[in-house]
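Supplementary notes for students who missed Thursday's class. We covered one full example, reproduced here. Read the sequence, then the structure, then the short commentary at the end.
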Amino acid sequence: MFNIVILVGNVATDIDVRASQTGTFVATFRLATSSYAGKAEDGSRKEATEFHNIVAFAKTAEFVGNHVKKGRAIVVTGHLRTSSWDDQASGTRKYKTEVVADRVEFVAAPQRKEEPAAA
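Structure (token representation):
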């Protein structure tokens, strides 16, 4: 079976880069994506925004830490990973799903059409 995720969105938080105990870089951030959610009462387009937890390791984490900033449009390619733990305070099992980024790329800026010079 396949576990592949491709997200295009805007970085919603500052990048947090740390080194693991073994010295591997780990970067975490949130990515905001939007999708069509129908029409509002006034006929305008409605969008639904989702926030995704992203984690990157090693060279990908290094790249993200050095070049990606909050607000930047990027493409994240990776896979889903769900972890679980027992919450001591509530005594319940907690779950967290995140995207492990295998690749992060910048979204190309749209080409602007040049206006003809006024004569």
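Commentary. The chain has one helix and six strands. The radius of gyration is 19 Å. If anything here is unclear, bring it to office hours.
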